[in-house]
Amino acid sequence: MTSVFGGMAQLVARLHGMQKVTGSNPVTSTEKLGQRPGFFVFGAGSDWLRIIWYTAMSMDGRIADACDSLGFLDAIGAWQGSESEFATFLTGIDAIIIGAATLRWLLRAGHGWPHGDIPTWLVSHDAMLATQVGQTAASFTRMEGDLNVAIDAIKTAGHECVWLCGGGNVAGQLLALDCIDEVIVTVAPVALGQGPALFDAPALTERRFGLIACHALNDRTARLHWVRTKS
Question: Other C-beta atoms within 10 Å of 37: how many?
Fold first, then answer.
């Protein structure tokens, strides 16, 4: 992590920490998804795709401030194993979806695209944005319009576990399509008041999730893990 993100390592480690979920609910793990500890498959079949919205937010549900800054992540603080947990999470991910605002933030901050070894789909109307990423080891595909097209392409490519890397607008679109299967959020002890929301859309159909984990990472920060409940 540190070598990839440089000076941002501490913030990213805090944002992307991952811990194994335990409890009394019956779950099934899978070896097909990199044997990632804590990742559980509900109702997996031969033709399926799981999309995980994995991020951090403020106490009032913002994933950035009004200026699209992630400075609020400083308030999260460190916890034991925070840097190694994100690497563990990535072992179960075989594709990424990212929105234009998130990628622009990374590029402006000088971090580039740090996950070039994982096939990535960029959701953007900006044809020049993808060219700024440069050459990557894995495919980097820009798409716009109906997100069902991207989802179908990811399925066709044989991928099964997708990390939604950001941002709130893309999350809102995927939620509207009922394509968000898990939400894993680190809650920072900050209220921002303004900024993009976790699901940043003007109107959304109600979607219900079941809480399978909620615990403190340290004396100021909480981690919540929901899975989509469909009936």
Answer: 15
Comparing CA positions, the residue from 219, 217, 228 lying closest to residue 174 is: 228
Structure tokens at 41: 């498959």
Nearest in space to 98 (alpha carbons), one of 66, 142, 68, 137? 142
Q: What's the mean pLDDT in 188-214?
A: 93
DSSP3 helix / strand / coil % (the chain, rounded to 5): 25, 25, 50
| Cis amide bond preceding 167, omega within 30 | yes
Copy the structure tokens of residue 121. Answer: 């789909």
Domain locations in the chain as residue ranges: 2-22+41-228
Q: What is the total residue count of the chain?
A: 231
Q: Which long-range CB contacts under 8 A does 200-203 form with residues at least 24 apart? A: 200/63, 200/167, 200/168, 200/169, 200/171, 200/172, 201/169, 201/172, 201/173, 201/175, 201/176
Q: Label residue 107 left, alpha or beta by phi (over 0 means left) and psi (-120 to 50 means alpha).
A: alpha
Span of 36-50, 107-121, 191-205 with lowest mean pLDDT: 36-50
pLDDT digits (tens, 9 = 90+) for 119-132: 999 999 999 999 99
- Pair 41, 33: CB distance under 8 Å: yes
pTM (2 decimals)?
A: 0.81
Class of CATH domain 2-22+41-228: alpha beta
